[in-house]
Amino acid sequence: MTTNGSRTRYDAIIIGGGHTGLVCAAYLARAGKKVLVCEKRHLVGGAAVTEEIHKGFKFSEFSYVVSLLRPEIIRELELPRHGLHILPLESTVTPMPNGNYLAAWGDHDESQRELYRHSPLDAERYEDFGIMMHHMAHAVKPILAMLPPDPTSLSPRELLALARFGGHMRSLGEDRFYALHKLMTMSSADYLDEWFETDVLKATKSASGIIGTFLGPRSPGSAYVLLHHYMGEIDGAFRAWGFQKGGTGGVSEAIAGAARAFGAEVKLEAPVTNVILKDGRAVGVAVGPGDEYFADVVVSGLDPKRTFLGLVDEKALPNDFLTSIKRFKARGSSGKVNLALSELPRFTCMQPDNIARWGGVQIPAARYLRGAMSISPTMEYVETAYDDAKHGAFSRRPYMDVVIPSMIDPSMAPPGQHVMSIFCQYAPFNITGGWDDAKREAFGDAVIHALAVFAPNIEQAIIARQVLTPADIERITGLTEGNIFQGELALDQLFFLRPAAGYAKYRSPIDRLYQCGSGTHPGGGIMGASGRLAALTMLRDWPA
Amino acid sequence: MTQRYDVVVIGGGVAGLTSAALLGKRGMDVLVVEAREHLGGLTSTEDVVPGVPCDTVDHELGWVPPALVAELGLDRHGLQLLHSDPCATALVPSAAAESITLYSDAQRTAGSLGRFSASDAAAWPAFAQRVAQLSGFLRALYEVPAPSLFATGAANLVSMLALGRKARSLGRNGIFDLLRTLPMSIADVLDESFENAALKGLLAARGVTRILQGPRSGATAFLFLHHHVGLAAGAVRGMLTARGGVGALAGAMIGAGKAHGVTFRTGATVARIEVKNERTQGVTLASGEEIAAERVVSSVDARHTIYDLIDPVHVEPELSRAIGHVRMRGATAKVNLVLDGAVPLPNAEALRGPLVVAPSISALERAFDDAKHGAISDNMTLEVRVPSVLDPSLEGKGDRVAVSVLAQWAPYRLKSGWDATSRAVLGDRVLATLESVIPGITNRVVHRDVLSPRDIEERFGATEGSLTHGELALDQILFMRPVPALSRYRSAAIQGLYVCGRGCHPGMPAPAAMLAAREIARAVRSREAPTPPPAPQAA
């Protein structure tokens, strides 16, 4: 047995070099701690990576857009200095079955004018809706940066935290509190029905409410996920979604750069096989075949199931905690298709004569293709996609969020050629009979066919394609069941229940073993909040 | 000549009758106005064909608070509550003799389950206890007006403290279990405990009763627990009814009301609630007759009350908008059958409790999918009761047997629209499903009454045929029910206007009316010298 690792002692070891692990490492290193990050792959980022899958074409393989990254993290870690560079995603166009389309722009007035074409009433409501969602996001913002209080504890500190939380709710005022209550509990379809009449608008907006969840737009709970995706838009002026220059991996590289600058050590191809316990306390990690590293505290950035059911001896965990982790829902529901293209897709609805036919404003392809194309033509379409999945199949006609990063950052593909990222839902991890190569390709074909309905030249433009099912996402990134949020953002898995009741403050039943991944409050997306809150918690109760 | 009362109650269903009796007892001069000729509303027992009584729509009572029974002396007025035991039996096509039956005795149920799954049998007692514990908390919540972050006054503080104490009594794990379970889907809850598909289907059907949601939809676990409030501990999936049918509750309320001087008028439809100077003046009937009253208590649903009965100039736009957003999507049909003899089911004991056709969670989910896309479910989920087996007083003349069937899903917004044809399709599907689990029943049917949600709306005035006057979902309960502005049972904008139906917290008519009546009595007490209503105009 080699013990070359045991020579160095660390203050903290972080398992997993995904973005939350790196954020946590950076904050600990910034506080002067000696930190080691162990990443199993040859690159940092976890699900936020850029890889050249086909020569000359760079794919943001999994996570592909950025918006939720907490501004305090960007500021405190000085991420722009380390290469963070977000290029805005300017528009969303949704093709409709009848050949018409709906466009939304970064410019609010422009969006409103376009919506007017579909419904003057909705155009008017759009204004109020935007204001209301803005207020709701502001109402939730402090909660994102808050340690979840324990509602069962009678300790003065917890009661105070609970009172502060109640005070925050009261401060919203009655109307906004009720609106927030509705957003927390309703389905996105019902919620949007209260505002709008244009089906394609509701379908496109409600799609934000299903991302990463195993819910349909008509399932209660999806409105919260809708809100979750609005929270990125609030810092300063409405901050739109955007791409990292050079691909999403650049975000991880920037955070890793910051961590290294503060003195953290990042070890690649260092898969942690288990957490070493001594007298019931975490003292280090075993890496690969035979290496061991020791530290005062161990932090896992992996999802709760992988951490507690994979790296720790189950016997070391109390029964009720173990049950909670086993019950924690992490049903993967989305897949990803990445394409290398020889030419740009031609969306039928955006051809000049078709735009003229529907009375829209002419937009050159060079402009709208810099934004997203949403394949969510009707509410029924999205809901039916869910029906397939809940009965154990991938959606025959999936909801898709299509972006072409090379339109914004030409370095992503060879000159004149392009990369396309297609996020698709639903592709259930628990597909009947399990995933295999044939099903993966059938799923890839279904995605391409569904897209070809609106952009017929897509099939002939494909140079190479990468199809990622939830099983692939699990295999490559380690995310249990390929769930992109490390656990669904459902009401029963949020705040003081995330990931388990009584363990929502980044601690675990094992002394000196902490958690910092998206499976903890406040959850997923490239947000980083849990990494920061975990680090601050650890620094507060740092062992002497 | 125009009559005058202290209170006019709109609607003679359980909620209206309860409010009337309670207010009558407090010395007020009360009139109940009911559009139908029969009192009882959705909770009525009437003859399907002459001499064969059956529960018209509801075939269970929901929670009847013991405090209410005591306060009105309902037992003296003939109320005798019946708990069904067996609590429920799952009817499955292949093995009608080998079906799962749940009893209020947990050990006996475990025995029944053991034939299908040893692990489910082992898990049962703990599950039954958990249901009792969590629904016990809901019961405490249903005994008081919904606590609010914004309401002022001692009453609100008292209900908050009482609930805090009740929550503490659940213990740390109990509180977390409650908070975690309420928003879950019933499918997820059951998957955590059980493996047998038929058992899970039987239980899951309770979480989607009378709602347009499937078992995989969020917060159906809440609805499951909601239906256990008021049941004896252990009586999972049981139901409460009364000797003489559910209508006997209305009957006892009428008796109590009469004893306290309440006047009842049937066959009288209220056309308008009169409002002047932001105060109710009384009501005007469809006949044009005016009835003056200082207070008007509406037990009909909030949308009907606000949209149809009040001149829009008196309704604030925010309230109007909120009312328009209340989801009332009726999705449950009622089919009452008359057979020419006993139900041909070998398991005679099972007939004493409800029989349920819901073979599995995924079958339920598929049935819901049909309705979600605007069609009548191909394979219907049924809850069947044969009232005369448990209660011989309901036996029909000449060996005729009434069978009461609640069928899901039959959406109010049917794509093809409701007419005689779609109603017949609905009836046929219900019978076909029944025939598949009780072979031979079709040949026995001599009469059938089919009530689609549209029929329920037309006959009983329930908007969209919603049997709960608004879906019981997390965004439509507590301080959100029916809408925040009416959640304390009164209108702030129109003095003297109250609401008391199942559309209010806690979503069941008797407890809602009890809380509403207390609120009205409090309002009366707090105003030392109520201003008399202005002189009525000459009619």
Fill in the keyword field for this structure.
heterodimer, A: 544 residues, alpha/beta, seven-stranded mixed β-sheet, 19 helices, 18 strands, 18% strand, disordered N terminus, B: 539 residues, 16 helices, 36% helix, 17% strand, globular, disordered C terminus
Strand portion of chain B: 15-25%
Question: Beta-sheet strand percentage of chain A?
Answer: 15-25%
Count of helices of chain B? 16
What's the alpha carbon Rg of chain B, rounded to whole Å?
23 Å
Mean pLDDT over all positions of chain B? 94
Global morphology of chain B? globular
| Derived structural class of chain B | alpha/beta
Count, helices of chain A = 19
> How many strands of chain A?
18
Largest interface, with Cβ-Cβ < 8 Å? Answer: A-B, 38 and 35 residues
Main beta sheet of chain B: strand number and arrangement?
Answer: 7 strands, mixed
Mean pLDDT of chain A: 93
Q: Portion of residues in helices of chain B?
A: 25-40%
Quaternary form? heterodimer
Specify Rg of chain A, calculated over alpha carbons.
23 Å
Gap between N and C termini of chain A: 31 Å
- Total E-strand runs of chain B: 18
